[in-house]
Amino acid sequence: MTAINNKNLKLAMQKEGRLTEETLEFLRKSGLEFESYNQRLFSTCRNFPLEILYVRDDDIPDYVASGTVDLGILGQNILSEERPKVKKLLNLRFGFCTLFIAVPKESQINNLSDLNGKTIATTYPNSTQNFLLKNKVEAKIVTISGSVEITPALGVADAISDLLSTGSTLALNDLRPLTKVYDSEAILIANEESVASKNKMMLLNNLLTRFKGVLSAKNYKYILMSAPEEKLTKIKKMLPSLIFPTLATISKNGFTTLQTVIKEDVLWDITGKLKAAGISQIFVLPIEKIIS
Ligand code: ATP
Ligand code: ZN
Known about the structure:
Blueprint: E1 9-14, H1 20-29, E2 42-44, E3 50-55, H2 60-66, E4 71-75, H3 76-82, E5 87-91, E6 97-104, E7 119-122, H4 125-134, E8 140-143, H5 151-154, E9 159-164, H6 168-172, E10 175-184, E11 186-190, H7 192-196, H8 198-218, E12 220-228, H9 232-238, E13 247-252, E14 255-263, H10 264-276, E15 282-286
Parallel strand pairs: 1-3, 1-4, 7-8, 7-9
Antiparallel strand pairs: 2-3, 4-11, 5-11, 6-9, 6-10, 12-14, 12-15, 13-14
Bound molecules: adenosine-5'-triphosphate (ATP) and zinc ion.
């Protein structure tokens, strides 16, 4: 295995877990080429001076804060819990989950103040304690390293505070949500000296431009359609070309080709109206990057 090149930027990501697949996909979409088969400790990018280190997600804040690596991708939840001295650079729009306080379905606890004097089991003691303090609730927090959801059934806790991406884990364990603590998603963090370093600035900016390009393209679609000429003005008005003008080109047999870039959720809102205005087919194309 080749050794780590110290002149390269270094990025730490989760080795094996919920964020791994989407992080790799995100890095590849950013145009980075690298091997990433299992059991690797790190990869060197073929086309960019970047080393990717595969580690446990809990170790990423320390690696970034200490400068072992320049960058890290991890859940916002870990940052909120550990509050390391690092700089948050970007929300990455994947790895969505929510820290919830939940109670057994049959529990008498129905609102926040009912938690006073009760025991809450969690892997996120600081996040949970801060939330309770803000809401003037005094409860006992028991820190557990895994399988928090079974603690009420074991009689260890009256409530839990745990990360969830869907409600199914709660239902499986006969729990119901009481309140949300916070929402989380994957984020990019950086070492504070790395972002201030002149030597690293050019590479970091290049990488950030790539990342932002992927992020801004994610919500947009390129659409193409053939519109009856007599309805052209009306149809153009329906297309909320937020950042891009609508191009009208190639007229044939009373139809004109329209092309524009719109937000995907807007597309679903206006499809019905476009059809009613005489558009029979809408071609929707993915956009790889929007570089600005
Ligand atoms: P590691 O072995 O790296 O320590 P882990 O078991 O602590 O892994 P995972 O369960 O793989 O961590 O979760 C990694 C991250 O995925 C979480 O910190 C969180 O940001 C995110 N995540 C998304 N959905 C969920 C979910 N339903 N439960 C827990 N975490 C989730
Ligand atoms: Zn972990």
